[in-house]
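To close the section, here is one more complete example, presented without commentary so you can practise reading it yourself. The ligand is histidyl-adenosine monophosphate.
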Amino acid sequence: MSTFNAPKGIPEYYPPRSAAFLAVRETLAEAVRRAGYGYIELPIFEDTTLFARGVGESTDVVSKEMYTFADRGGRSVTLRPEGTAGVVRSVIEHGLDRGQLPVKLCYAGPFFRYERPQAGRYRQLQQLGVEAIGVDDPALDAEVIAIADAGFRALGLTGYRLEITSLGDATCRPGYRERLQEFLRDLPLDTETRARAELNPLRVLDDKRPAVREMLTDAPLMVDHLSAECRENYEQVKGFLNDLGVKFTENPRLVRGLDYYTKTTFEFVHDGLGAQSGIGGGGRYDGLMAELGGQPLSGVGFGLGLDRILLACEAEGLMVGDEARCQVFCVPLGEVAKARLVAVAGELRAAGVRVDLAYGGKGLKGAMKAADRSGARYALVLGDRDLDAGAVQLKELASGEQRTVALEGVVTAVREALGR
Ligand code: HAM
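Output:
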């Protein structure tokens, strides 16, 4: 046991696994860039009221899971539990919605939720998210969903599915909510569930207990009570998903943990992860921007859980980001050789080659072992005799094949050997 440990429930990424983490994020980010989203870097903490109002007081995220504290000026601030509220706040604050719409933004980084830690459920979680704000077009909902799907496919993932539904809007949801509450009031539910039914009845539909599930078999479903407009909107989203070749299943009981959703909502679920199977989710939010003091513009977006996506890649045995940490490993034998190889390493790096060197005066055996471990394809071995001859040994580590190249032209020789 070391003297200090990281706080509980926080995954740390260090080599070699951190390379896979970065590759996951980068692959997904590339899918996002292909759809024209610009990057936004947001504060890690915000005014507590932003989340209370934006995400919803009745959600578990706000009522039980926020890292909230008073700063030294006595203001209540909260480590961001999610990204959408912050993006919308920033769009309003900087007037980003006064130009071309939709405003298409993407972000990535850590988010904080005081949850009970377990495999795939962390207190510091990493997300990559997008938000497209200002245009209510079902084709845009489909685009957002298709980006995530393309990103997952680019990683090589196959064991996931997409679930979608429509949560209606301000015209049809209140009526449905009442209908659901009436239905729930007639059930022999425990006190806590009863309280939840009054506060947030849709959440009850998400109850995992078999006995409760059984009681909910005939519960009214939002999809059966959509306004004509919301129904048409939902049909169009599905149509565009088909046009994009994105497969989905409809789950009319899909419940999200955040309150701002309207109309299209979705979740990507991976089957290889056990209980924490949601690898990403999102949807449309009609009222959020106005709720936070902006124009009444609608938005749509997703948050992808990078920690879980990495676990999903590992569960499927995918090698993501297995690029070796360096391509060439320099092995100097003696001080003069070291000075020369230090310079060569610098030149190679300037030429775009990833290079490491055996530091600490290792002998040939130890240095070659380090070269093997580095994952490099080639070692450059420089001894006294080579130095006198103005040459260096270029050794292919996998085959053991070795040839002598002139020190003068070593950068060109290495680049040719690497095929660049
Ligand atoms: P969310 O569903 O709360 O949505 O989170 C998105 C994803 O983050 C989840 O699907 C999951 O993969 C990951 N995630 C959430 N909590 C944890 C945790 N404790 N440990 C590990 N991974 C976790 C949002 O946050 C919305 N802001 C998404 C959105 C953007 N909706 C519209 N725009």
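Once you have examined the tokens, check your reading against these statements. The chain has a mean pLDDT of 96. The chain has two domains: 17-172+226-315, 328-417.
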